[in-house]
Amino acid sequence: MLRKVLIANRGEIACRIIRTCHRLGVATVAVYSDADRDALHVSLAGEAVHVGPSPAAESYLRGDAIIDAALRAGADAIHPGYGFLSENPDFAWAVTSAGLRFIGPSSDAIRAMGLKDAAKALMEKAGVPVVPGYHGAEQDPDFLLDEAERIGFPVLIKARAGGGGKGMRRVENAEAFREALASAQREASAAFGDASCLIEKYIAHPRHIEIQVFGDDHGNVVHLFERDCSLQRRHQKVIEEAPAPGMPEDMRRAMGEAAVKAAMAISYSGAGTIEFIADASEGLKPDRFWFMEMNTRLQVEHPVTEAITGVDLVEWQLRVASGEPLPRLQDELFISGWAFEARLYAEDAERGFLPATGQLVHLDLPEELARVDSGVRAGDRISPFYDPMIAKIITRGPDRQTALSLLSSALSEVRATGVTTNATFLRRLTMQTDFVEGKPDTGLIDRHLSELTFHRAPSREAMALAALELSGTLQPKTANDPWGGLSGFRLWSQASDFVELDDRGHHVPVSFASTGEGAYAATVDGKRVDFSLSRSGDGACLLEVEGSKRRVHLVSGQRDVTIFGDGENWHFGLLDPLAGEDEAADGGDRIVAPMPGLVKLLRAVPGAAVAKGETLAIMEAMKMELTLAAPRDGTIAEVLVAQGEQVVEGAMLLTLEPEDGEPEYGEPEDG
Ligand code: MV4
């Protein structure tokens, strides 16, 4: 076995590799960039080496620095994880040349699969079905048009160096061909420095089904069945599962055999994936799948294969890299049960899946219900430098329905604050009818985008609960009784009975009164609601309205609260009633921290007159200085932070006195 492995990666995959190394008694060396100084993968590894500044090109992509670190640490192998250097044949070669093992295939095998046209030609020769098309060297437009007509429209033009859909064009007819080709070539040239394209028959109802393969250095290759990755958005996988729903046994056998043949053709060693496209227009059929490409690495979605086969794929990688034969042969591998993986991302689905950055102030992950592979913990930052995946949530059950229900439940137990996540989107996806019925397809998410991403308005009870919390009414009486405030009757003099909530920029006035033990009456935006609160066993709060109780969780910040319930969550800020009532979000009466960071300088005292443009505060965040200026002439009303204080993104720093006029309440959004 290997003695010491350097993991040339970060995040969840570095953590996942380190865990298996620990289990097998293999020592670990992590590498890290400036941004990852305090990252989880660094704290899990036996030792860690700094390899450069935050941008990946200056750290995780520095093959020379990483090999140097491995040599100095006395490692005998490098695991590249996925992404970064994992499919770089020159890196694999350099690792081996330095006398280290590369935990992956040979540089020749990586190179053979690097270009789509060469890979297709190689696979065709090996007897693996490939999508009908042209994948030769000739690039003359007239010649390619003839080929397109031979193949039959519609066709798909693909860049041979392409990935992630770049340089891909669907063409409906001969008239549109030349322009599409020229545009694909331009895009490919700009993106990959390689304009060469191939032409394929366009598959109208594709399913993305891939086969996990494994080879060793003794000539053995096995497959570990399939994964269905058809649920994608903009070529990003969203939820994967294994096995593939609706897969006939004869097709599974045919795909497995084709995948083994493909790996054998390049004497493949280690973990790999053969990606196929299947035409599902008339259900899955054994003669309707074709080779697309091979990924010569461990993939993000490998845990679903582990869940249905009981194999630790990283353990197999380590064993094979140390020269051992495959731990199991084909007739010792079986599918048991069903598994799903959902990718939890820091992104805002409501705003077109905008990547979110910032500090994960609070993070609960559903470890009791699912396998959770994560590379972050509460308090960590999601930085703009790397992929913003927070965790992979993996569930397994004896059958598809059980595993999917479990995934749905697990997703509703994700509670993150500080950074917007796609948990609600994922949870809605687990309940989408076509998906529930086992009919995932590559267009499903786009077709149902609005129902998967719309903002569900909070209930009045949720707003009342938020108001109660923000008023201090639910605050603990003692430190070790966090819900003390719920059980007892509280004197009204101790807490405010009116607050104004900030619901995504809308102002919602809420007043309330206690009507008994844990019972309240509230007026939310002029409408009355009655509810009561009690504590549930697991730290949640039971919110009872008209005789039915629902479990909700409250996560509070300094002046904000997030309510988690029904797989949804709502974030509310507190508007200070003393600061005046017409502080419209866009009125420039509040100065908030545009990003998390340090208040380096504060030049504001209550009552002071300020002129528009005058510097009120300087923040330091991500090694940058940010000047916060007065948005208008006015008077400082409140100063809510002190110089030297660390603040979260969106924290209110100071307020100006209102200009004039009557208070105006925004309408809460409906539906
Ligand atoms: C195709 C196709 C239809 N016909 N090839 C997209 C990325 C790349 N890996 C392959 N892709 C496709 N190739 C032919 N001949 C449709 C897609 C495709 C797709 C494939 C799998 C999963 C999601 C997809 C989303 C859009 C297009």
Q: For the largest sheet, list the strands in their spatial order.
A: 14-13-10-11-12-15-22-20
Number of strands: 39
What do the pLDDT scores average to?
A: 91
- Judging by the overall fold, what is the CATH architecture of the largest domain? 2-Layer Sandwich
Largest sheet: 8 strands, antiparallel
Characterize the overall form.
Answer: globular
Tell me the Rg in angstroms: 28 Å
Straight-line distance between termini: 59 Å
List the helices and strands and how they pair.
Elements: E1 4-7, H1 11-23, E2 27-33, H2 40-44, E3 47-52, H3 63-73, E4 77-79, H4 89-97, E5 101-102, H5 107-112, H6 116-125, E6 133-134, H7 141-151, E7 155-159, E8 169-171, H8 174-192, E9 197-201, E10 206-215, E11 221-233, E12 236-242, H9 249-265, E13 270-279, E14 289-295, H10 302-309, H11 313-321, E15 338-345, E16 347-348, E17 354-355, E18 358-359, E19 362-364, E20 371-374, E21 381-382, E22 389-397, H12 400-412, E23 415-417, H13 423-430, H14 433-436, H15 444-447, H16 449-453, H17 460-471, H18 484-487, E24 498-503, E25 506-516, E26 519-524, E27 527-535, E28 541-545, E29 548-556, E30 560-565, E31 568-575, E32 590-592, E33 597-602, E34 609-610, E35 615-621, E36 624-629, E37 634-639, E38 646-647, E39 652-656
Parallel strand pairs: 1-2, 1-4, 2-3, 4-5
Antiparallel strand pairs: 6-9, 7-8, 7-9, 10-11, 10-13, 11-12, 12-15, 13-14, 15-22, 16-17, 18-21, 19-23, 20-22, 24-25, 24-31, 25-26, 26-27, 27-28, 28-29, 29-30, 30-31, 32-39, 33-35, 33-38, 34-37, 35-36, 37-39
Helix pairs in contact: 7-8, 12-13
Bound molecules: ligand MV4.
